[in-house]
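FORM 7B - TANDEM STRUCTURE REPORT

SECTION 1: FIRST PROTEIN
SEQUENCE AND TOKENS:
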Amino acid sequence: MMKKTILLATALLVSSAFATQDVGKNYQDAAENVPAAFHNHVKESETPALNYVNQPPMIPHSVANYQVTKNTNQCLTCHSPENARITGATRISPTHFTDRNGNVTGQTAPRRYFCLHCHVPQADVEPIVPNEFKPMKGYGN
């Protein structure tokens, strides 16, 4: 019984040591929803083609170091209805002001506030894993 207890305690100690090395940093980045820095971004003037019906539009610019947290959403600096008129950026969709019950609100709905959950930046890089995805007929390049 004593051997099992020591073995279990050692296993827990070792696993917790590994868990706190890099995972804490990655978890913090994920919690703050700060996107990783990418290279070879597509040109900012290009609007990426959609690949299927109701696809969220892709982001045609770098979002490196953008903060999208519960307190800050840097995307709204340019894309909110008020600021889009001034910046010329695409205004966020009216669907982003509808809550889960279908009520239209005066603010971005919480379920649509974290832009980077659906909208993704594009980069001209080789895929990490093989991908045989083909756009729907009439979509894509």
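SECTION 2: SECOND PROTEIN
SEQUENCE AND TOKENS:
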Amino acid sequence: MARAAAALWLLFGLAACVLAAPQNVTSQHALQSMSLDDLDLQLQTCSIVQELSAIKHAHHAEAPSSLTTRLFAVLFPGSPAVNALLATLYISGPPNFLLALCPTNIDPSSLSVMVAFAVGGLLGDTLFHLLPEIFLGEDESGRARFVLVEPNRNLVLGLAILVGFMTFVAMDKGLRIATGGGGGHDHSHAHAHVHSHADSKAVVSGSHVGSDEVKSRRKGKGKREVVEKEKDQHKEVNPSVKLGGYLNLIADFTHNITDGLAMSASFYASPTIGATTTVAVFFHEIPHEVGDFALLIQSGFSKRAAMASQFVTALGALMGTLIGIAVQELGGGNANGEASMPRNAGLWKTSLTWGDMLLPFTAGTFLYVGTVAVIPELLETGPNKSQELRKTLIQFSAVAVGAGIMLYISWHD
């Protein structure tokens, strides 16, 4: 009964504030032309809203700052643009330097646990941070905040999510067509396919070499010469496999551009969203970069050339970040992800700007990478049931840990 009475009191109080707010506006036309920020300022003058803000501010003032909050404050101390550039360095630098420690004969399928962990992080960041931020906005510790329901605005945001999702569908489909069936993000399957394809070509070429070797023996050539010739033949890589490696570099460069867009869009939404997106992308980049590194090695690249190529593709993330910053600065959005223009003067007569489209686009790409592009890899099974059951439990645990980290950060920040 006490909660019902409090809720009823709050409802009547807000209704009184809303009815009283238009008295401060000169005309109905002026009310319609107000931006969301202006409407929020009008609501903040209401006594009951001020009371709620005071209670909320006192609660947050008493609660000690969490470890993640202090860590994020150290890692991202600047403006949204500066923090986005710092995040791009964090997600691009360390994963590429780790490639120096990777052996050239690494099997991408051995990364399944790390891939599962990355899936949990990406989906956790999307579901716990990006989607709530997109439709409701970021919570504020110092005051009560109200959301203006604008149906067409939500439809446009949902459309941007769909566009992001389908953009990655088109990219993946185009890469599969170009490589003859190999996928762009499904590392273990695509790499195993390329590897077996290269091996079969090597065996075929080796069979032809064998007939030459018999002839050379008949001509009196030594056994050592035959072995050296056979090694040289096995070092050759099928041209189609090399082409697949170069196409994968192009896909990786494009993928990194979307990561850069995610960095800029997230930090312009809020520092917390930017930090959690950085963590999610970082954990995804490690198995992603190692898988691409293994594919380049199998495509005939030397270890040094493969590492150099990965550093070049990392420039795509920097390019995407700079593009995202330009869109945010010039597209009419602000650091809170809301428009400062009249709420019906944006895209398709909504309050949205082009800068507001980057975050839902990012959410769509994350949904694709975390589900369609990666989960099929986790669904692959072998003939040994007990081994596959143990492997599945480990993978599900890794997904839970990745999502749990995102949930912890969201809960305490």
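SECTION 3: OBSERVATIONS ON SECOND PROTEIN
The longest helix spans residues 187-218.
The chain has one domain: 31-180+238-412.

SECTION 4: SIGNATURE
Preparer initials: ____
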